[in-house]
Each structure stands twice: as structure tokens, then as C-alpha cells.
Amino acid sequence: MGKVRDIVDILSEKYQINEWWDKYSAFQTLVSIILSQKTYWKNVRAATKRFGEQFGSIKDVAGASTNEIEEAIKPAGLHHARASRILNIARELVERYDGKLEQIVDLPYEAAKKKLTSLKGVGPKTADVFLMTVKGEQVLPVDVHISRIMGRLGIADESDDYESLRAKLEAEIPPNERTKAHLVLIEFGRQMCRSQNPKCEECPVKKYCGGENR
Ligand code: SF4
User: Fold this and answer.
1) What mean pLDDT is reported for the chain?
2) Domain containing 33 — which CATH number?
3) Is the pLDDT of residue 52 over 90?
4) Distance from the CA of 10 to the center of ligand 1, in angstroms?
């Protein structure tokens, strides 16, 4: 077995997965992913719920003002920048796809990802998390936690970009285990291999790691 596989197996014993997205529409899911960056889950959930209550369709969002969107997503913080981003995405979806996100979701993975990342404000990580969530695409999106963990563990190096690091992880994690691996690694990054003050002494994978300065 490879190093990534070993580490994911050890961490999977320790952390429960949390599939939080089931109850959302596709667009609400995209919004929740945008809101989840550097934000506590509790606040993301509250903001996503308020957003869903206020806007019934992508066209409703596209016709709203930035202020109205800001107000809806307020519990998540950073609301001005995020509201602009959400409004831009909704407007583009209405202009290009008549507000029907399923026109993208129904495409094969590569084509769907290409169309998603052509929307201003949607990068490859957001697109991958979205497709994994709404469609069960068997990808292993690399977020800021996973990137940091892999750097510390010596798996990511300076030449890696998003796609090359994703490929390294996916080479060792079989398709049907990637969603779980993604969630487990994020949980590890939140609870233990934190950006500041990682809990290295109690880390179950420290034998693989040179420590936080690695
Ligand atoms: S030993 Fe510390 S820096 Fe290394 S993986 Fe564990 S928590 Fe992260």
C-alpha cells in the first residue's frame, strides 16, 4: 500500500464522516460550498438555510440585489464578497443556461467541470466538491485543509497544483472511497492538523510526518 492509502485508512478509523448536503437543491449546494470556505459549519448551515428560504430559484437570485443576497447569507460572514460572487454565478447561469443548472450537472464529468469552471467565481475545487456532492462523481477534491496536510506529510511538493495533487491522491484511493477520504481528511485538518498549533503529539499519522514545519 502507498503512503496516502495508509494515512487515509488510519484516519478513517478515527473520524466519522458528515454528509451534510443531502437536503439541498443543486444551486443551494453550490452556495453552501462557496460559503464553507474558512467558515464554521454551523454558520454555513444557518446561512444556506436562510438563502434557501429566501430564494426559490436561480432566476430569483439573478434578479435580486447584492444587498438582498448579503442579508440572506449573513450568518456565514464575508457576506459582501460572497454575495457578489453568488449573484454573478446566478446571472451567468440564467444568461447561458436559462437558470437550469441541470444542463451542466447532467453532462459527463470533464464537460461539466469545464462549464462550471468557466463561470466567474467557480474554481476547480468548488466544481469538484459540487459534482461529488450533487452527482456522486468519484473525485477527491483538494481543499485548503487537504493541501496543508499533504504538504506537511511530504506528499504535496511545491510543483503541485490543484490537479496534480488531486491526481496523486486519486491514484491511491479507489473511486468509491474518495468522498469519504475527502471528508475524513478535512475533519483531521479541522481537529488536529490545524493551520495554527497542530496537535502533533496526539496525531495518529505522525510517523509519516516531519511535523508542522515540514
Ligand atoms: S504530526 Fe502534526 S503536522 Fe504532521 S500530520 Fe500530524 S498533526 Fe499534522
Assistant:
1) 93
2) 1.10.340.30
3) yes
4) 13
